[in-house]
Specification:
The structure holds two protein chains of two kinds. Helix content of chain A is 79%, strand content 0%. By secondary structure, chain A is mostly helical. In chain A, helix 5 packs across helix 10, helix 8 packs antiparallel against helix 14 (289-320) and helix 9 (158-188) packs parallel to helix 14. Chain A is globular, with a radius of gyration of 22 Å. The chains are: A mainly alpha, B alpha/beta.
Chain lengths: 326, 310
Protein backbone atom coordinates (compact mmCIF):
# COMPACT_ATOMS: atom_id res chain seq x y z
CA UNK A 1 0.00 0.00 0.00
CA UNK A 2 2.82 2.39 0.85
CA UNK A 3 4.35 1.51 -2.50
CA UNK A 4 1.18 2.58 -4.27
CA UNK A 5 1.11 5.88 -2.43
CA UNK A 6 4.76 6.56 -3.20
CA UNK A 7 4.27 5.81 -6.89
CA UNK A 8 1.11 7.92 -6.91
CA UNK A 9 2.80 11.03 -5.50
CA UNK A 10 5.83 10.65 -7.70
CA UNK A 11 3.69 10.32 -10.83
CA UNK A 12 1.47 13.18 -9.81
CA UNK A 13 4.49 15.42 -9.29
CA UNK A 14 5.85 14.28 -12.66
CA UNK A 15 2.55 15.02 -14.36
CA UNK A 16 2.36 18.50 -12.97
CA UNK A 17 5.93 19.46 -13.72
CA UNK A 18 6.04 18.00 -17.22
CA UNK A 19 5.98 20.18 -20.30
CA UNK A 20 3.23 17.98 -21.56
CA UNK A 21 0.96 19.14 -18.79
CA UNK A 22 1.67 22.78 -19.54
CA UNK A 23 0.73 22.23 -23.18
CA UNK A 24 -2.47 20.47 -22.17
CA UNK A 25 -3.31 23.18 -19.73
CA UNK A 26 -2.88 25.87 -22.35
CA UNK A 27 -5.03 23.87 -24.74
CA UNK A 28 -7.82 23.44 -22.23
CA UNK A 29 -7.47 27.04 -21.10
CA UNK A 30 -8.08 28.10 -24.69
CA UNK A 31 -11.16 25.95 -24.75
CA UNK A 32 -12.41 27.65 -21.62
CA UNK A 33 -11.69 31.17 -22.81
CA UNK A 34 -13.22 30.40 -26.14
CA UNK A 35 -16.32 28.92 -24.54
CA UNK A 36 -16.79 32.05 -22.49
CA UNK A 37 -16.38 34.19 -25.54
CA UNK A 38 -18.99 32.17 -27.43
CA UNK A 39 -21.32 32.25 -24.45
CA UNK A 40 -20.89 36.02 -24.06
CA UNK A 41 -21.82 36.52 -27.68
CA UNK A 42 -24.79 34.22 -27.75
CA UNK A 43 -26.19 33.64 -24.29
CA UNK A 44 -28.79 36.40 -24.39
CA UNK A 45 -30.13 35.08 -27.62
CA UNK A 46 -30.00 31.50 -26.39
CA UNK A 47 -32.07 32.33 -23.36
CA UNK A 48 -34.71 34.42 -25.05
CA UNK A 49 -35.20 32.71 -28.38
CA UNK A 50 -36.07 29.25 -27.16
CA UNK A 51 -39.59 29.92 -26.10
CA UNK A 52 -41.99 32.73 -26.33
CA UNK A 53 -44.35 31.74 -23.58
CA UNK A 54 -43.75 33.35 -20.24
CA UNK A 55 -43.60 30.08 -18.35
CA UNK A 56 -41.04 28.58 -20.66
CA UNK A 57 -38.96 31.71 -20.49
CA UNK A 58 -38.81 31.70 -16.72
CA UNK A 59 -37.97 28.01 -16.72
CA UNK A 60 -35.23 28.62 -19.19
CA UNK A 61 -33.82 31.47 -17.14
CA UNK A 62 -33.79 29.23 -14.10
CA UNK A 63 -30.89 27.37 -15.65
CA UNK A 64 -29.18 30.28 -17.28
CA UNK A 65 -25.90 29.46 -15.59
CA UNK A 66 -25.70 26.06 -17.25
CA UNK A 67 -26.17 27.78 -20.59
CA UNK A 68 -22.64 29.07 -20.18
CA UNK A 69 -21.45 25.56 -20.86
CA UNK A 70 -23.83 24.54 -23.57
CA UNK A 71 -24.36 27.64 -25.69
CA UNK A 72 -22.92 27.44 -29.13
CA UNK A 73 -22.93 30.21 -31.64
CA UNK A 74 -23.29 29.50 -35.31
CA UNK A 75 -20.17 27.69 -36.44
CA UNK A 76 -18.56 28.04 -33.03
CA UNK A 77 -18.89 25.02 -30.78
CA UNK A 78 -19.92 25.15 -27.16
CA UNK A 79 -17.72 24.42 -24.16
CA UNK A 80 -19.29 21.00 -23.98
CA UNK A 81 -18.21 20.16 -27.52
CA UNK A 82 -14.68 21.25 -26.66
CA UNK A 83 -14.66 18.99 -23.65
CA UNK A 84 -15.95 16.07 -25.70
CA UNK A 85 -13.01 16.50 -28.05
CA UNK A 86 -10.26 17.48 -25.63
CA UNK A 87 -10.70 15.19 -22.67
CA UNK A 88 -9.61 12.17 -24.73
CA UNK A 89 -6.48 14.05 -25.76
CA UNK A 90 -5.73 14.83 -22.12
CA UNK A 91 -6.28 11.20 -21.11
CA UNK A 92 -4.13 9.91 -23.97
CA UNK A 93 -1.36 12.42 -23.28
CA UNK A 94 -1.19 11.37 -19.66
CA UNK A 95 -1.08 7.64 -20.34
CA UNK A 96 0.39 6.78 -23.71
CA UNK A 97 3.94 6.29 -22.43
CA UNK A 98 3.16 5.19 -18.88
CA UNK A 99 4.81 1.78 -19.02
CA UNK A 100 6.82 1.52 -22.22
CA UNK A 101 8.87 4.66 -21.58
CA UNK A 102 9.92 3.23 -18.23
CA UNK A 103 10.75 -0.01 -19.97
CA UNK A 104 12.80 1.74 -22.63
CA UNK A 105 14.70 3.96 -20.25
CA UNK A 106 15.53 1.01 -17.99
CA UNK A 107 13.81 2.39 -14.91
CA UNK A 108 11.11 -0.26 -14.78
CA UNK A 109 13.35 -3.16 -13.79
CA UNK A 110 14.98 -0.97 -11.16
CA UNK A 111 11.56 0.01 -9.88
CA UNK A 112 10.28 -3.56 -9.80
CA UNK A 113 13.32 -4.79 -7.90
CA UNK A 114 12.19 -2.66 -4.96
CA UNK A 115 10.08 -4.29 -2.26
CA UNK A 116 6.70 -3.23 -3.64
CA UNK A 117 3.91 -5.23 -5.22
CA UNK A 118 4.03 -5.02 -8.95
CA UNK A 119 0.50 -3.65 -9.23
CA UNK A 120 1.51 -0.64 -7.13
CA UNK A 121 3.25 0.70 -10.23
CA UNK A 122 0.30 0.45 -12.59
CA UNK A 123 -2.32 1.42 -10.00
CA UNK A 124 -0.27 4.38 -8.84
CA UNK A 125 0.23 5.58 -12.38
CA UNK A 126 -3.44 5.21 -13.25
CA UNK A 127 -4.64 6.97 -10.13
CA UNK A 128 -2.14 9.79 -10.59
CA UNK A 129 -3.39 10.20 -14.14
CA UNK A 130 -7.01 10.30 -12.98
CA UNK A 131 -6.11 12.83 -10.28
CA UNK A 132 -4.33 15.07 -12.79
CA UNK A 133 -7.22 14.80 -15.18
CA UNK A 134 -9.72 15.62 -12.44
CA UNK A 135 -7.79 18.66 -11.31
CA UNK A 136 -7.55 19.89 -14.88
CA UNK A 137 -11.24 19.37 -15.55
CA UNK A 138 -12.44 20.86 -12.26
CA UNK A 139 -10.25 23.91 -12.63
CA UNK A 140 -11.42 24.61 -16.16
CA UNK A 141 -15.10 24.29 -15.19
CA UNK A 142 -14.48 26.55 -12.20
CA UNK A 143 -12.69 29.03 -14.40
CA UNK A 144 -15.60 29.25 -16.79
CA UNK A 145 -17.95 29.50 -13.80
CA UNK A 146 -15.97 32.35 -12.29
CA UNK A 147 -15.70 34.42 -15.42
CA UNK A 148 -19.26 33.58 -16.36
CA UNK A 149 -20.51 34.71 -12.98
CA UNK A 150 -19.00 38.13 -13.52
CA UNK A 151 -20.37 38.27 -16.99
CA UNK A 152 -24.01 37.29 -16.50
CA UNK A 153 -24.27 38.23 -12.83
CA UNK A 154 -26.56 35.32 -12.02
CA UNK A 155 -25.18 32.91 -9.42
CA UNK A 156 -25.77 29.22 -10.01
CA UNK A 157 -28.57 27.69 -7.98
CA UNK A 158 -28.10 24.50 -6.01
CA UNK A 159 -29.46 22.28 -8.73
CA UNK A 160 -27.13 23.80 -11.26
CA UNK A 161 -24.20 23.15 -8.95
CA UNK A 162 -25.27 19.55 -8.51
CA UNK A 163 -25.67 19.15 -12.25
CA UNK A 164 -22.21 20.58 -12.81
CA UNK A 165 -20.79 18.18 -10.28
CA UNK A 166 -22.50 15.27 -11.99
CA UNK A 167 -21.09 16.53 -15.27
CA UNK A 168 -17.61 16.62 -13.76
CA UNK A 169 -18.05 13.08 -12.46
CA UNK A 170 -19.00 11.76 -15.88
CA UNK A 171 -16.19 13.79 -17.43
CA UNK A 172 -13.63 12.21 -15.12
CA UNK A 173 -14.88 8.72 -15.94
CA UNK A 174 -14.71 9.61 -19.63
CA UNK A 175 -11.13 10.84 -19.24
CA UNK A 176 -10.23 7.78 -17.20
CA UNK A 177 -11.42 5.61 -20.07
CA UNK A 178 -9.02 7.29 -22.48
CA UNK A 179 -6.24 7.17 -19.92
CA UNK A 180 -6.86 3.46 -19.42
CA UNK A 181 -6.88 2.88 -23.16
CA UNK A 182 -3.61 4.78 -23.63
CA UNK A 183 -2.01 2.83 -20.78
CA UNK A 184 -3.21 -0.40 -22.32
CA UNK A 185 -1.38 0.48 -25.52
CA UNK A 186 1.67 1.54 -23.55
CA UNK A 187 1.83 -1.96 -22.14
CA UNK A 188 1.23 -3.77 -25.41
CA UNK A 189 3.54 -1.72 -27.60
CA UNK A 190 7.24 -1.40 -26.95
CA UNK A 191 7.67 1.89 -28.72
CA UNK A 192 6.26 5.10 -27.34
CA UNK A 193 5.45 6.45 -30.80
CA UNK A 194 3.43 3.35 -31.63
CA UNK A 195 1.35 3.50 -28.48
CA UNK A 196 0.69 7.22 -28.94
CA UNK A 197 -0.36 6.68 -32.52
CA UNK A 198 -2.57 3.73 -31.64
CA UNK A 199 -4.41 5.78 -29.01
CA UNK A 200 -4.87 8.69 -31.40
CA UNK A 201 -6.07 6.26 -34.06
CA UNK A 202 -8.83 5.00 -31.77
CA UNK A 203 -9.82 8.57 -30.98
CA UNK A 204 -9.98 9.49 -34.67
CA UNK A 205 -11.90 6.35 -35.42
CA UNK A 206 -14.60 7.16 -32.90
CA UNK A 207 -14.81 10.80 -33.87
CA UNK A 208 -14.79 10.56 -37.66
CA UNK A 209 -15.53 7.03 -38.73
CA UNK A 210 -18.10 5.94 -36.21
CA UNK A 211 -20.75 8.06 -37.99
CA UNK A 212 -20.13 6.31 -41.26
CA UNK A 213 -20.03 2.85 -39.75
CA UNK A 214 -23.19 3.47 -37.75
CA UNK A 215 -24.84 4.71 -40.94
CA UNK A 216 -23.75 1.60 -42.80
CA UNK A 217 -25.03 -0.68 -40.08
CA UNK A 218 -28.32 1.17 -39.94
CA UNK A 219 -28.78 0.90 -43.72
CA UNK A 220 -28.00 -2.78 -43.62
CA UNK A 221 -30.33 -3.61 -40.75
CA UNK A 222 -33.12 -1.23 -41.67
CA UNK A 223 -32.76 -0.14 -45.28
CA UNK A 224 -34.58 2.98 -46.36
CA UNK A 225 -35.37 4.52 -49.73
CA UNK A 226 -37.69 7.16 -51.18
CA UNK A 227 -40.79 5.05 -50.62
CA UNK A 228 -40.03 4.20 -47.01
CA UNK A 229 -42.70 4.76 -44.46
CA UNK A 230 -42.17 6.92 -41.47
CA UNK A 231 -41.84 3.80 -39.34
CA UNK A 232 -39.00 2.49 -41.48
CA UNK A 233 -37.25 5.82 -41.39
CA UNK A 234 -37.54 5.93 -37.65
CA UNK A 235 -36.20 2.44 -37.29
CA UNK A 236 -33.23 3.36 -39.42
CA UNK A 237 -32.48 6.34 -37.22
CA UNK A 238 -32.91 4.24 -34.12
CA UNK A 239 -30.46 1.54 -35.27
CA UNK A 240 -28.04 4.24 -36.28
CA UNK A 241 -28.17 5.77 -32.84
CA UNK A 242 -27.75 2.44 -31.09
CA UNK A 243 -24.70 1.70 -33.19
CA UNK A 244 -23.30 5.13 -32.38
CA UNK A 245 -23.58 4.36 -28.71
CA UNK A 246 -20.79 1.83 -29.08
CA UNK A 247 -18.57 4.88 -29.09
CA UNK A 248 -17.55 6.30 -25.72
CA UNK A 249 -17.56 9.74 -27.29
CA UNK A 250 -21.23 9.39 -28.14
CA UNK A 251 -22.00 8.04 -24.68
CA UNK A 252 -20.30 10.98 -23.06
CA UNK A 253 -21.78 13.68 -25.25
CA UNK A 254 -25.29 12.29 -24.79
CA UNK A 255 -24.88 11.90 -21.06
CA UNK A 256 -23.50 15.36 -20.52
CA UNK A 257 -26.00 17.11 -22.73
CA UNK A 258 -28.78 15.56 -20.67
CA UNK A 259 -27.06 16.57 -17.44
CA UNK A 260 -26.40 20.15 -18.51
CA UNK A 261 -29.66 20.76 -20.34
CA UNK A 262 -32.43 20.08 -17.86
CA UNK A 263 -35.04 20.50 -20.59
CA UNK A 264 -33.66 17.54 -22.51
CA UNK A 265 -36.20 14.81 -22.01
CA UNK A 266 -34.92 12.35 -24.51
CA UNK A 267 -31.84 11.36 -26.35
CA UNK A 268 -33.44 9.64 -29.35
CA UNK A 269 -34.41 11.25 -32.60
CA UNK A 270 -37.62 9.31 -32.31
CA UNK A 271 -39.23 11.16 -29.50
CA UNK A 272 -37.94 14.49 -30.62
CA UNK A 273 -40.04 14.13 -33.72
CA UNK A 274 -43.07 13.30 -31.69
CA UNK A 275 -42.40 16.26 -29.48
CA UNK A 276 -42.18 18.62 -32.40
CA UNK A 277 -45.56 17.35 -33.50
CA UNK A 278 -46.97 17.79 -30.06
CA UNK A 279 -44.97 20.87 -29.26
CA UNK A 280 -48.03 23.00 -29.26
CA UNK A 281 -49.53 21.09 -26.37
CA UNK A 282 -46.35 20.22 -24.49
CA UNK A 283 -44.29 22.65 -22.55
CA UNK A 284 -40.57 21.97 -22.38
CA UNK A 285 -40.58 21.41 -18.68
CA UNK A 286 -37.12 20.85 -17.26
CA UNK A 287 -36.59 17.47 -15.67
CA UNK A 288 -35.65 17.22 -12.02
CA UNK A 289 -32.01 16.23 -11.48
CA UNK A 290 -32.93 12.75 -10.31
CA UNK A 291 -34.74 12.04 -13.55
CA UNK A 292 -31.89 13.39 -15.65
CA UNK A 293 -29.45 11.19 -13.80
CA UNK A 294 -31.73 8.22 -14.28
CA UNK A 295 -31.70 8.89 -17.99
CA UNK A 296 -27.93 8.89 -18.25
CA UNK A 297 -27.31 6.06 -15.84
CA UNK A 298 -26.92 3.46 -18.61
CA UNK A 299 -24.44 5.72 -20.31
CA UNK A 300 -22.47 6.22 -17.15
CA UNK A 301 -22.43 2.51 -16.42
CA UNK A 302 -21.28 1.75 -19.96
CA UNK A 303 -18.48 4.29 -19.71
CA UNK A 304 -17.41 2.89 -16.37
CA UNK A 305 -17.51 -0.63 -17.75
CA UNK A 306 -15.35 0.36 -20.72
CA UNK A 307 -12.85 2.00 -18.38
CA UNK A 308 -12.76 -1.03 -16.12
CA UNK A 309 -12.28 -3.39 -19.07
CA UNK A 310 -9.37 -1.31 -20.39
CA UNK A 311 -7.73 -1.12 -17.03
CA UNK A 312 -8.34 -4.77 -16.22
CA UNK A 313 -6.68 -5.92 -19.45
CA UNK A 314 -3.71 -3.64 -18.77
CA UNK A 315 -3.50 -4.86 -15.21
CA UNK A 316 -3.54 -8.55 -16.08
CA UNK A 317 -1.08 -8.13 -18.89
CA UNK A 318 1.28 -6.09 -16.76
CA UNK A 319 1.14 -8.51 -13.86
CA UNK A 320 1.82 -11.52 -16.03
CA UNK A 321 4.47 -9.91 -18.13
CA UNK A 322 7.92 -11.38 -17.86
CA UNK A 323 10.81 -9.08 -17.26
CA UNK A 324 13.09 -10.31 -20.00
CA UNK A 325 16.81 -10.08 -20.11
CA UNK A 326 16.89 -8.05 -23.30
CA UNK B 1 29.26 -19.94 6.51
CA UNK B 2 25.74 -18.86 5.72
CA UNK B 3 24.34 -19.52 2.31
CA UNK B 4 23.40 -16.28 0.59
CA UNK B 5 22.14 -17.59 -2.70
CA UNK B 6 20.95 -21.04 -3.54
CA UNK B 7 19.25 -22.55 -6.54
CA UNK B 8 17.96 -26.07 -6.86
CA UNK B 9 17.39 -27.41 -10.37
CA UNK B 10 16.41 -23.94 -11.50
CA UNK B 11 15.02 -24.08 -15.02
CA UNK B 12 13.54 -21.48 -17.33
CA UNK B 13 12.06 -22.19 -20.72
CA UNK B 14 11.01 -19.46 -23.12
CA UNK B 15 8.75 -20.74 -25.89
CA UNK B 16 10.61 -23.96 -26.38
CA UNK B 17 14.15 -22.74 -25.85
CA UNK B 18 15.75 -23.42 -22.51
CA UNK B 19 17.50 -20.34 -21.18
CA UNK B 20 18.52 -21.88 -17.88
CA UNK B 21 18.74 -25.62 -17.47
CA UNK B 22 18.71 -27.29 -14.04
CA UNK B 23 21.04 -24.83 -12.44
CA UNK B 24 22.38 -25.66 -9.01
CA UNK B 25 24.21 -22.74 -7.54
CA UNK B 26 25.39 -22.05 -4.00
CA UNK B 27 26.99 -18.79 -3.05
CA UNK B 28 28.15 -18.16 0.48
CA UNK B 29 27.75 -14.98 2.43
CA UNK B 30 30.51 -12.46 1.75
CA UNK B 31 31.57 -13.94 -1.55
CA UNK B 32 32.21 -11.84 -4.60
CA UNK B 33 30.93 -14.18 -7.21
CA UNK B 34 31.90 -13.65 -10.83
CA UNK B 35 29.13 -14.90 -13.02
CA UNK B 36 30.66 -15.46 -16.42
CA UNK B 37 29.57 -16.59 -19.79
CA UNK B 38 28.95 -15.40 -23.30
CA UNK B 39 25.89 -13.36 -24.21
CA UNK B 40 22.74 -15.44 -24.08
CA UNK B 41 24.18 -17.96 -21.67
CA UNK B 42 21.34 -17.40 -19.21
CA UNK B 43 23.09 -15.19 -16.66
CA UNK B 44 20.55 -12.40 -16.65
CA UNK B 45 17.64 -14.83 -16.63
CA UNK B 46 19.12 -16.53 -13.59
CA UNK B 47 19.49 -13.19 -11.82
CA UNK B 48 15.93 -12.21 -12.68
CA UNK B 49 14.65 -15.49 -11.28
CA UNK B 50 16.69 -15.05 -8.12
CA UNK B 51 15.13 -11.62 -7.65
CA UNK B 52 11.64 -12.94 -8.23
CA UNK B 53 11.15 -10.76 -11.32
CA UNK B 54 10.75 -13.76 -13.57
CA UNK B 55 9.06 -16.99 -12.63
CA UNK B 56 11.08 -20.15 -13.04
CA UNK B 57 9.57 -22.91 -15.15
CA UNK B 58 10.69 -25.35 -12.49
CA UNK B 59 13.10 -25.50 -9.59
CA UNK B 60 13.64 -23.21 -6.66
CA UNK B 61 15.66 -20.05 -6.12
CA UNK B 62 16.41 -18.89 -2.59
CA UNK B 63 18.10 -15.85 -1.15
CA UNK B 64 18.97 -16.14 2.51
CA UNK B 65 16.44 -18.90 2.74
CA UNK B 66 13.60 -16.85 1.24
CA UNK B 67 11.94 -18.36 -1.77
CA UNK B 68 12.25 -15.84 -4.60
CA UNK B 69 9.02 -16.87 -6.28
CA UNK B 70 6.84 -17.11 -3.18
CA UNK B 71 8.27 -14.31 -1.05
CA UNK B 72 9.51 -11.80 -3.62
CA UNK B 73 9.00 -8.85 -1.30
CA UNK B 74 11.25 -10.27 1.40
CA UNK B 75 13.84 -11.11 -1.21
CA UNK B 76 13.68 -7.65 -2.74
CA UNK B 77 14.06 -6.04 0.65
CA UNK B 78 17.49 -7.61 1.14
CA UNK B 79 18.79 -7.64 -2.39
CA UNK B 80 19.95 -4.82 -4.60
CA UNK B 81 19.92 -5.04 -8.36
CA UNK B 82 21.72 -3.09 -11.03
CA UNK B 83 20.24 -4.08 -14.37
CA UNK B 84 22.39 -4.25 -17.46
CA UNK B 85 20.74 -1.24 -19.10
CA UNK B 86 20.22 0.75 -15.95
CA UNK B 87 18.17 3.90 -16.29
CA UNK B 88 17.09 6.82 -14.17
CA UNK B 89 14.42 9.46 -14.43
CA UNK B 90 16.38 11.89 -16.55
CA UNK B 91 14.43 14.94 -15.48
CA UNK B 92 15.10 14.38 -11.80
CA UNK B 93 18.31 15.06 -9.94
CA UNK B 94 20.46 12.22 -8.69
CA UNK B 95 19.27 12.93 -5.17
CA UNK B 96 15.61 12.84 -6.15
CA UNK B 97 16.06 9.60 -8.02
CA UNK B 98 17.52 8.01 -4.93
CA UNK B 99 14.88 9.57 -2.70
CA UNK B 100 12.17 7.84 -4.73
CA UNK B 101 13.86 4.48 -4.21
CA UNK B 102 14.26 5.24 -0.50
CA UNK B 103 10.53 5.99 -0.19
CA UNK B 104 9.66 2.80 -2.07
CA UNK B 105 11.70 0.96 0.51
CA UNK B 106 9.71 2.62 3.25
CA UNK B 107 12.62 4.52 4.78
CA UNK B 108 11.77 7.49 6.95
CA UNK B 109 12.60 10.90 5.51
CA UNK B 110 15.47 11.43 7.92
CA UNK B 111 17.03 8.02 7.41
CA UNK B 112 16.57 8.37 3.66
CA UNK B 113 18.44 11.68 3.58
CA UNK B 114 21.27 10.18 5.63
CA UNK B 115 21.60 7.11 3.45
CA UNK B 116 21.39 9.11 0.22
CA UNK B 117 24.16 11.45 1.35
CA UNK B 118 26.26 8.53 2.46
CA UNK B 119 25.73 6.46 -0.69
CA UNK B 120 26.51 9.37 -2.99
CA UNK B 121 29.65 10.01 -0.96
CA UNK B 122 30.77 6.41 -1.33
CA UNK B 123 30.45 6.43 -5.11
CA UNK B 124 31.93 9.92 -5.37
CA UNK B 125 28.89 11.73 -6.72
CA UNK B 126 28.26 14.13 -3.84
CA UNK B 127 29.34 17.07 -5.96
CA UNK B 128 26.72 16.46 -8.62
CA UNK B 129 23.95 15.22 -6.33
CA UNK B 130 21.59 18.00 -7.32
CA UNK B 131 22.29 17.92 -11.02
CA UNK B 132 19.81 16.30 -13.32
CA UNK B 133 20.66 12.77 -14.38
CA UNK B 134 20.43 13.64 -18.07
CA UNK B 135 23.72 15.52 -17.69
CA UNK B 136 25.47 12.41 -16.37
CA UNK B 137 27.94 10.34 -18.35
CA UNK B 138 27.52 6.61 -18.69
CA UNK B 139 30.12 5.97 -16.00
CA UNK B 140 28.42 8.36 -13.59
CA UNK B 141 25.11 6.64 -14.16
CA UNK B 142 26.69 3.30 -13.39
CA UNK B 143 28.07 4.70 -10.17
CA UNK B 144 24.71 6.20 -9.36
CA UNK B 145 23.22 2.76 -9.90
CA UNK B 146 25.59 1.38 -7.28
CA UNK B 147 24.56 4.15 -4.90
CA UNK B 148 20.97 3.27 -5.71
CA UNK B 149 21.39 -0.29 -4.47
CA UNK B 150 23.19 0.89 -1.34
CA UNK B 151 20.15 2.89 -0.23
CA UNK B 152 18.44 -0.18 1.13
CA UNK B 153 21.67 -1.60 2.59
CA UNK B 154 21.25 -4.93 0.85
CA UNK B 155 22.76 -8.19 1.98
CA UNK B 156 23.15 -9.35 -1.60
CA UNK B 157 23.80 -7.20 -4.64
CA UNK B 158 23.28 -8.41 -8.19
CA UNK B 159 25.29 -6.40 -10.66
CA UNK B 160 24.50 -7.24 -14.24
CA UNK B 161 27.36 -6.15 -16.51
CA UNK B 162 28.23 -3.15 -14.33
CA UNK B 163 31.25 -2.28 -16.44
CA UNK B 164 29.79 -2.43 -19.93
CA UNK B 165 30.21 0.73 -21.93
CA UNK B 166 32.66 2.57 -19.71
CA UNK B 167 36.27 3.43 -20.39
CA UNK B 168 39.15 1.32 -19.01
CA UNK B 169 39.98 3.79 -16.26
CA UNK B 170 36.32 3.93 -15.28
CA UNK B 171 36.14 0.14 -15.27
CA UNK B 172 39.07 -0.07 -12.89
CA UNK B 173 37.55 2.49 -10.55
CA UNK B 174 34.18 0.81 -10.70
CA UNK B 175 35.59 -2.59 -9.83
CA UNK B 176 37.65 -1.18 -6.98
CA UNK B 177 34.55 0.55 -5.72
CA UNK B 178 32.54 -2.64 -5.80
CA UNK B 179 35.29 -4.61 -4.08
CA UNK B 180 35.70 -1.97 -1.38
CA UNK B 181 32.00 -1.74 -0.67
CA UNK B 182 31.62 -5.50 -0.57
CA UNK B 183 34.52 -5.87 1.82
CA UNK B 184 33.53 -3.02 4.13
CA UNK B 185 29.90 -4.01 4.39
CA UNK B 186 30.31 -7.76 4.21
CA UNK B 187 27.97 -7.72 1.27
CA UNK B 188 27.61 -10.67 -1.04
CA UNK B 189 28.06 -9.57 -4.62
CA UNK B 190 27.06 -11.43 -7.74
CA UNK B 191 28.72 -9.80 -10.69
CA UNK B 192 27.81 -10.92 -14.15
CA UNK B 193 30.13 -10.16 -16.98
CA UNK B 194 31.63 -11.48 -20.14
CA UNK B 195 34.80 -9.50 -19.66
CA UNK B 196 36.91 -12.02 -17.90
CA UNK B 197 40.03 -10.22 -16.88
CA UNK B 198 37.92 -7.64 -15.07
CA UNK B 199 36.07 -10.18 -13.00
CA UNK B 200 39.31 -11.89 -12.19
CA UNK B 201 40.58 -8.81 -10.40
CA UNK B 202 37.96 -8.71 -7.69
CA UNK B 203 36.11 -12.02 -7.53
CA UNK B 204 37.04 -14.83 -5.24
CA UNK B 205 34.67 -17.33 -6.76
CA UNK B 206 33.56 -17.67 -10.30
CA UNK B 207 31.03 -19.65 -12.23
CA UNK B 208 31.05 -20.02 -15.96
CA UNK B 209 27.76 -20.50 -17.66
CA UNK B 210 27.09 -21.58 -21.21
CA UNK B 211 23.83 -22.44 -22.92
CA UNK B 212 21.94 -22.54 -19.64
CA UNK B 213 24.37 -24.83 -17.86
CA UNK B 214 26.91 -24.01 -15.20
CA UNK B 215 30.01 -25.37 -16.89
CA UNK B 216 32.35 -24.88 -14.01
CA UNK B 217 32.15 -23.21 -10.66
CA UNK B 218 34.50 -22.76 -7.76
CA UNK B 219 37.29 -20.79 -6.17
CA UNK B 220 39.44 -18.90 -8.61
CA UNK B 221 42.71 -20.56 -7.51
CA UNK B 222 41.24 -23.99 -7.72
CA UNK B 223 39.92 -23.45 -11.21
CA UNK B 224 43.27 -22.14 -12.40
CA UNK B 225 45.08 -25.14 -11.06
CA UNK B 226 42.64 -27.48 -12.74
CA UNK B 227 43.02 -25.74 -16.02
CA UNK B 228 46.82 -25.59 -15.93
CA UNK B 229 47.41 -29.13 -14.85
CA UNK B 230 48.15 -28.08 -11.32
CA UNK B 231 50.55 -25.20 -11.85
CA UNK B 232 49.94 -21.57 -11.09
CA UNK B 233 52.33 -20.27 -13.72
CA UNK B 234 53.25 -21.31 -17.18
CA UNK B 235 56.64 -20.54 -18.61
CA UNK B 236 57.06 -20.70 -22.35
CA UNK B 237 60.56 -21.28 -23.67
CA UNK B 238 61.86 -21.07 -27.20
CA UNK B 239 65.27 -22.61 -27.77
CA UNK B 240 67.42 -23.18 -30.81
CA UNK B 241 67.67 -26.84 -29.88
CA UNK B 242 65.92 -28.91 -27.27
CA UNK B 243 67.79 -31.79 -25.73
CA UNK B 244 66.25 -34.40 -23.49
CA UNK B 245 69.00 -33.75 -20.96
CA UNK B 246 67.80 -30.20 -20.65
CA UNK B 247 64.19 -31.32 -20.19
CA UNK B 248 65.23 -33.68 -17.44
CA UNK B 249 67.24 -30.96 -15.81
CA UNK B 250 64.27 -28.60 -15.80
CA UNK B 251 61.98 -31.26 -14.48
CA UNK B 252 64.24 -31.59 -11.48
CA UNK B 253 63.85 -27.98 -10.47
CA UNK B 254 61.77 -27.73 -7.36
CA UNK B 255 58.31 -26.41 -8.01
CA UNK B 256 58.00 -27.56 -11.60
CA UNK B 257 54.84 -29.55 -12.07
CA UNK B 258 55.28 -30.81 -15.58
CA UNK B 259 56.97 -30.00 -18.86
CA UNK B 260 55.39 -30.25 -22.27
CA UNK B 261 57.27 -30.19 -25.51
CA UNK B 262 55.96 -29.00 -28.84
CA UNK B 263 58.26 -28.33 -31.83
CA UNK B 264 60.89 -25.91 -30.59
CA UNK B 265 58.79 -24.79 -27.62
CA UNK B 266 58.87 -25.97 -24.04
CA UNK B 267 55.86 -25.34 -21.88
CA UNK B 268 56.62 -25.54 -18.18
CA UNK B 269 53.85 -25.51 -15.60
CA UNK B 270 55.10 -24.49 -12.22
CA UNK B 271 53.94 -23.36 -8.81
CA UNK B 272 55.98 -20.18 -8.67
CA UNK B 273 57.96 -17.89 -10.92
CA UNK B 274 60.99 -20.05 -11.69
CA UNK B 275 62.41 -18.11 -14.61
CA UNK B 276 65.85 -17.42 -13.06
CA UNK B 277 66.39 -21.05 -12.20
CA UNK B 278 65.16 -22.25 -15.58
CA UNK B 279 67.48 -19.79 -17.29
CA UNK B 280 70.34 -21.09 -15.22
CA UNK B 281 69.50 -24.68 -16.15
CA UNK B 282 69.53 -23.78 -19.85
CA UNK B 283 72.88 -22.07 -19.60
CA UNK B 284 74.32 -24.97 -17.59
CA UNK B 285 73.21 -27.34 -20.33
CA UNK B 286 74.69 -25.16 -23.04
CA UNK B 287 71.35 -24.37 -24.63
CA UNK B 288 70.68 -21.19 -26.58
CA UNK B 289 67.64 -19.29 -25.42
CA UNK B 290 65.59 -17.47 -28.07
CA UNK B 291 62.85 -16.22 -25.79
CA UNK B 292 61.20 -16.90 -22.50
CA UNK B 293 57.69 -15.81 -21.50
CA UNK B 294 55.73 -16.28 -18.33
CA UNK B 295 51.97 -16.32 -17.88
CA UNK B 296 50.12 -16.52 -14.68
CA UNK B 297 47.00 -18.43 -15.50
CA UNK B 298 44.37 -16.05 -16.73
CA UNK B 299 40.70 -16.55 -16.49
CA UNK B 300 40.73 -16.33 -20.23
CA UNK B 301 42.51 -19.66 -20.37
CA UNK B 302 40.09 -21.21 -17.96
CA UNK B 303 37.26 -19.81 -19.94
CA UNK B 304 38.64 -21.02 -23.24
CA UNK B 305 39.48 -24.39 -21.80
CA UNK B 306 35.98 -25.01 -20.57
CA UNK B 307 34.45 -23.49 -23.61
CA UNK B 308 36.15 -25.69 -26.09
CA UNK B 309 34.78 -28.58 -24.05
CA UNK B 310 31.18 -27.47 -24.30
Amino acid sequence: MSGLITVFWKELADNFTSKRFIILFILVLFAGVFAIYVAAENIRQAVTETDTSLFAATESIRFVFLKLYTTSGGAMPSFLTFIVFFVPIVGIALGFDAINSEKNSGTLSRLLSQPIFRDAVINGKFLAGVATLSILLVSIVMLVAGVGLRMIGVPPNSEEILRLMAFLGVGIVYGAFWLGLAMLFSIFFQRVATSALASIAVWIFFIFFMFMIAGLIANMVAPVDDQSTQQELLRNVEVNLTAMRASPIMLFSEATSVLLVPAARTMGQLLQMEISEAATQMLPNPLPLGQSVLMVLPHLVSLLALTVVCFAISYIRFMREEIRST
Amino acid sequence: MKLAVETVDLTKTYDGTTAVNKLNLRIEEGDIFGFLGPNGAGKTTTILMLLGLTEPTSGVARIYGYNSTREPLRVKRISGYVPERVGFYEDLSARHNLAYIARLNGLSEKLAMERIGESLEVVGLSEVADRRVQEFSRGMKQRLAIADTLIKTPKVAFLDEPTSGIDPEGVREMLNLIATIARERGMTVILSSHQLHQVQQICNRIGIMAKGHMVVEGLLDQLGRDAFGGGRFRVELQLTEITSALVDCIKQIEGVVNVERSEDLLLINCMEDLRPRIAKAIVDNGGLLVQMKIQSYALEDIYMKYFTEV
